[in-house]
Amino acid sequence: MSEFRFDVVTFGEMMQMFVAETPGPLESVVRFAKRTAGAETNFAIGMARLGLRVGWASRLGTDSMGRYLLSEMQREGVDCSRVVCDGAQRTGFQFKGRVTDGSDPPVEYHRKGSAASQMGPADVDEAWLRSARHLHATGVFPAISASARAAAQKSLAVMRAAGGTISFDPNLRPSLWASADEMRREINALAAQADWVLPGLEEGRFLTGEATPEGIARYYRERGARLVTVKLGPEGAYYDGVEGSGHVAGFPVREVVDTVGAGDGFAVGVVSALLEGRTVPEAVRRGAWIGARAVQVLGDTEGLPTRAELEAAGL
Ligand code: ADP
């Protein structure tokens, strides 16, 4: 039995998402389907589906959206004991458009001043963090407000001091930051606290000034990362870690329905496999397989496999 209560914990904002049922500009769409969104909660759901013990810390309103999101997370088996539901605050939501050409769909956020963006360092329960073996963080939560950023910085510092491992997915959201320079500086400072850093190629280029996957990986390895995986879309991913470097090919995809969620699914595959003691190439392969599933569905989480599906695929 593990000495830890959780295999992994994460902080972040969950939003109700309205996904367009038809293509075209959002203002002309009449029918939307209700889903959930949030980089960290996508990750938490994926890990829980694989049977890992997952905890999530956040704030929600007590409006219908907050009640929906909380019940979805509980249904997925994620521990929500550190989710504060506050009747005085509103739950964030977003709209996502539909595209037919495999490009990134338009997304419109309504999250400014949301319950989760009111979180701050006082929301970081240190004992709860230390009850987990691993912390997963992304660049989204620190982008939603200055107090959330302070909470993210504190949670990474606490986990590092406790000796747990940390994974970090930059997940850039330029529209949430005051400037590109600030985004680059803050995201790189958080990445420097992590053991495993998971940038995409384009965001890695922006963050490091390096052009190639090798250069991007080197940049973070020189700043302390033990493993860097650079996501390459249909081409799979490049990895560079203490045990060596290499490339894992992408899994073939019939039709790209929606690219959102691929990076979160990739993180689920890599982090779950590493926590289970798999080798880095095995972990990246699992990540690439889940990423390829994620682009073939409309929502952000319906591509995330169960343990049985993972085993059936030999991963
Ligand atoms: P991000 O959205 O974080 O930039 P990617 O779009 O590169 O991440 O997707 C994450 C992973 O999902 C990739 O590394 C790849 O393994 C897989 N993936 C993404 N898009 C495709 C695709 N069109 N075909 C096959 N695999 C894909």
From TrEMBL:
<keyword id="KW-0547">Nucleotide-binding</keyword>
<keyword id="KW-0808">Transferase</keyword>
<dbReference type="InterPro" id="IPR002173">
    <property type="entry name" value="Carboh/pur_kinase_PfkB_CS"/>
</dbReference>
<dbReference type="Pfam" id="PF00294">
    <property type="entry name" value="PfkB"/>
</dbReference>
<comment type="similarity">
    <text>Belongs to the carbohydrate kinase PfkB family.</text>
</comment>
<dbReference type="InterPro" id="IPR029056">
    <property type="entry name" value="Ribokinase-like"/>
</dbReference>
<protein>
    <submittedName>
        <fullName>Sugar kinase</fullName>
    </submittedName>
</protein>
<dbReference type="InterPro" id="IPR011611">
    <property type="entry name" value="PfkB_dom"/>
</dbReference>
<keyword id="KW-0067">ATP-binding</keyword>
<dbReference type="GO" id="GO:0016301">
    <property type="term" value="F:kinase activity"/>
</dbReference>
<dbReference type="InterPro" id="IPR050306">
    <property type="entry name" value="PfkB_Carbo_kinase"/>
</dbReference>
<feature type="domain" description="Carbohydrate kinase PfkB">
    <location>
        <begin position="7"/>
        <end position="307"/>
    </location>
</feature>
<keyword id="KW-0418">Kinase</keyword>
